[in-house]
Input
Amino acid sequence: MATRMSQREHARLLNIGDNGKEPIEEVTPEKLERARSRANKPFYPRGIYFNTQATKDGVRHFVDGIGDLNPLFRDEEYAKKSKYGSIIAPGSYLYTIYWTIVAAGMPGVHGWYSGGDWEWYRPIYVGDEFKTVCIIRDTVEKKGRMTGGSSIYISYNDVIRINQRGEIVGKDHYHTVRAGRKEANSAGKERNLEKPTYTTDDWKKILDAYDDEELRGAEPRWWEDVQVGDQMRPMIKGPLSVRDEIAWLMGGGTIFMLAHKIQYLWEARHPRGLEYVPETGERDVPELVHVFDEFARAIGVERAYDYGSQRMSWLCQYFTNWMGDDGFLWKMSGDLRAFNQIGDITTFEGKVVDKYIDQGKCCVDIEAWAKNQRGAVSMPPLRSTVILPSREHGPVVYPNPPIELVKEVSQARPLDELIAEGLI
Output
C-alpha cells in the first residue's frame, strides 16, 4: 500500500523557518553537479505534457490561443485544396506535445524559458501521434542583469518529437535561465515599470496594425521573387492581458495547472515544486507568475508576464504568415530579453539577409526581432531559415535531421530505467 500523502514530505507540509519566513530554494554546487551529471543521456520522459496527437480541435485551440487566423491550420475545406490535402499544424504546435525538461536537476529553483533554436524536418499532419526524447545538455554560469550582477545559470537542453512513422519532426534546443528567487527579487530590475495606458488614438493605431497583418496564404511566395534586403511587414501582439494568457493555456497546455487530488499528488512527487509568495503568504505553482502580479513580484517582475513558448509561437506565426502555404519553416531562433508584462505591446519586424540553395533546398535567411511600446528590444535580431518553392527547381524539399541526432534518439531509454541504474 502506498504511503499516505500526509506521511510523506509534501509541498503543503514544509515547515516555515525559525524566522517566520519560507525557506527559499537557491542554486547550489550540489544542484549544479546533479544537473551536469545528467547530460547527454537521451531518455523518454515519464508522461505526456498536454497532447499526444495533432487533432483538428487541438490544432484549432492552439492557433486560437496565439491569435493565428491562417486557414491552413483551421479550415478543413481550405486545407484539402492545399498540397497537404488536410489541416496541418504550425511547427510551434510541438510545444503542446512536450515543452521543457522540468527542473532538470534543480528542484525548487525558478526558471525562465528564455528562447531556443528550433529545427523542423517534416510537416505536422492532423492525425499524427508523437513521442518525445529529452536530452539534458549543459548548464553555464553567467552574470545576470535580472539578479543585479549575481550569477545566473543557463540550462541548454534538447526536446525531440518523433511521429508514429518514426520520423523526427522537430527539435528544440531550448535555453532556460535559472536564478535564486531571493537574488532576482532583491535586484528589482523589472520592478516599478508603470503599466502602459492607451488613448483612443493609440487604439486606432493598434487596430490598424492588426488589420495590416500579412497572411500570404495560398499565393506561393516563389524563391526567385525574394531579394536580399526585402522587409517583412510588421506583426503586432497585445496589449498583453491575462485573457491572452488563459487563451494560451487553453491551446498550449500546462504541466502545473492541475486540479484537486491530481494537483496534490503532483506536489507529493515534487515537494519543492511550489513558490512561496510573501504578499499572499501562500504557496502555489510557479506558473501563476503569468496570471497574478503578486507571484511575478515574488521573483522581481512588476506584473504578470507572457510565456516564453508563447512568444516563440508568435515568432513562428510571423514566418508562416510570410512564407505562405507552400513554404516550410526549417530553422527558427529566438532569444527572450525584456519581460513582456501585462499591458505591453510586442511588434515583430524582419528582413531578408540571404538566399541560397542547400542540397536542393531553396533557402531564404531572415533576421527577425521584436520590440515593445517603449522601444526596448524584447527579442534581438536572430537568423531563421525558410525553404520556399521555386519556379525553376520545383516544390519545397524537406530537410533531414542530422545523423548524430538520429543516432542519439535511437539510444533513448525510459527515464525510470536510467534512474534505477543510477545514470540520471
About this structure: Residues 5-14+38-420 form a domain with the Thiol Ester Dehydrase; Chain A fold (CATH 3.10.129.10). Residues 308-323 form the longest helix (16 residues). Residues 68 and 317 are 7 Å apart (CA to CA). The longest strand covers residues 130-143.
